[in-house]
From TrEMBL:
Organism of origin: Glycomyces endophyticus
Pfam families attached to this UniProt entry: HTH_17
Organism superkingdom: Bacteria
Domain Helix-turn-helix stretches: 25-73
NCBIfam families: excise
Name by which UniProt lists this protein: Helix-turn-helix domain-containing protein
Coiled coil stretches, renumbered: none
Amino acid sequence: MLATALDRTVRHMSEPGDLLDEVKFLTVTEVAELMRVSKMTVYRLVHNGEIAAVRVGRSFRVPESAVKTYLSEALQTDE
């Protein structure tokens, strides 16, 4: 019975369209390293709404796609 429930759970988690399977979250430190800016700059971007983020407890997690969107928009405005 436990094996069947576990099998169902694993199958459900691997179904296409599961949002969490498609989203990779980054820490503020990882975003700062990726963008080569300070953590304070990332926090400012998050608080100003320039980069989307999710609050988890006392910290933030930033979807990787939000960083890509921010950078691509920044490149377009520079041109």
